[in-house]
Amino acid sequence: MARAERATSGKLVFQTAQKNGKQGGMSAMTGKNRKNYNENYIQYVNSFDPPTQHFKNCFRAFMVGGLICCVGQFLRVLFENTTAMSSDELASAVSVVLIFLGTLLTGLGVYDRIGRNAGAGSIVPITGFANSVASPAIEFKTEGLVYGLAAKMFIVAGPIIVYGVLAGTAVGIVYLFL
Amino acid sequence: MNTIFFDKKPRIISTGTIAGPKECAGVIGKYVDKTLVDDMFGESTYEKAECKMLSYAITKAIENAGMTEKDMDLLISGDLLNQIISASFAARDFDFPFLGVYGACSTMAESMAVAAAFVNASYYKNIVVATGSHFSTAERQYRYPLELGCTRPPQAQWTVTGAGGCVIAPKGSHIAITSATIGKVVDYGITDVNNMGAAMAPSCASSLLEHLKDTGREANYYDLIVTGDLGALGSRILKDLTWEKGCDIANNHVDCGEIIYNVIEDEYQGGSGAGCSATVVNSYLMDKLKRRELNKILFVATGALLSTVSSGQGESIPCISHAVAIENI
Which residue of B has its CA nearest to A17? Predict the structure, then answer.
């Protein structure tokens, strides 16, 4: 087999591209300034990246996400006809039930399987949020109820809360002046 | 010269291995000493299960050597968890000295090299080496909670649930460790923690080529060049890297991570973890060596020396590989 056929990039990947080779001495060299940082190699490795299947991913996310929304809508109609709740109360009740279902499926070990195939379809809805709180709670239960379960419960959901509140505040301020 | 030659040829006299159900469905299933039905191994946490697996591998290796704890002079062990807790906690069950080592997934080769050096120099007589890993403990430490509904990228590998060990002694078998090449830390700047194969391949190529240069051997001197856990993509890259340096390993290279799993579910590129090469080499390949179906193998285990802190700070992934030549004599 000829060399050209083997090396996908057509470049010599082993050859270190020493663009910043002059930097030496005792200074800490990190990132691209490091001595054996190899740009050719990075390009070569990136050439192996399989193309993202946008259509397939979007379709699956749409189907599963849509299904979860349908369940929510069904619950809303159900509560509307069976109870005397107001519109706001209905929204809360539906959310509560969906959060419960998301947590239950997480505990049963089903939600991660759904998530693996659905991608954003099961992460974005409120059930995904429930999953992101319940899954670390289960995981870190072994480290105690206070420092394990309770403290680590928000390692995944924490950023969502922080930036969610921040974005909400920003929108609120804009809204104030409109 | 980074290669040490063992003139007294320390022998691998026995092995002990244990692996999870998913691993045993593959090629190593027939050769391991114990297949786990339940990956908790009857313990309350995965960490305890990993420790117990390691303990089992050590005990079984000693037992298979026809020896007892009293005959053992040293235990060399390591694992993937912070402060190598599995190895240290397993060691408290044994009444002989313990040396903890860490080389991420390359720990098995590192331990073997150190043990062979000790035995060759006659400082110790019988040394047991063992490493292991567990999918669930590694996921917790390096990635996300198990039940989190996230997707795995196609470059990802699956940490092997398993442990393997062997006893190295001055004599007692025809399988010998003849030389070992201690690797350099190589980092070409890969930052993607899900692409371990690509991160580790350059260090693997470096150690492999260094070994061949030091020993003056061609790649085809070995019946098999076994790499640790590069996975399918990493193996492909390794072949390219070595080819470029005028060394063709296409015909006799095999990767433990690539071959360990039978079913392709979410493993994508194959297995990884300290337990990957430990189980494959100590069960499947040792059996082939014992039967003389293979006579000369070069075991190059690769390890990615990152932590969640370093990758969080945007550091690239430094990697290391150690090569150990195991031959029938």
Answer: B188
Shortest distance between the Cα of A165 and any Cα of chain B, in A, equals 23
Residue A2 banded pLDDT, cuts 50, 70, 90: very low
- Considering only CA atoms, which of B108, B129, B136, B105 is closest in space to residue B278? B108
For residue B323, the domain's CATH number is: 3.40.47.40
Query: Given an 8 Å threshold on Cβ–Cβ distance, is B243 in contact with A112?
Result: no
Summarised one tens digit per residue, pLDDT across range A125-158 is 899 999 999 999 999 999 999 999 999 999 999 9
Prediction pTM value? 0.89
With CB atoms and an 8 Å threshold, state whether B150 touches A50: no
Mean pLDDT rounded to a whole number for chain A: 83
Residue B222 parent element (H or E):
none
Whether residues B83 and B58 fall in one domain: yes
Residue that finishes a domain, picked among B118, B151, B169: B169
Domain housing B56? 6-169
Q: What is the DSSP string of B228-293?
A: SS-HHHHHHHHHHHHHHTT---TTTEEEHHHHH-SS-SS-TT-EESHHHHHHIIIIIIHHHHHTTS
Please give the residue of chain B at the shortest CA–CA distance from A16: B188
This model of the complex carries an ipTM of 0.83
Q: Is A123 within 8 Å of chain B by CB? A: yes
Domain identity same for B94 and B147: yes
- Domains of chain A: total: 2
A128 contact B CB<8A: yes
**Which tens digit of pLDDT belongs to each residue from B203-212?**
999 999 999 9
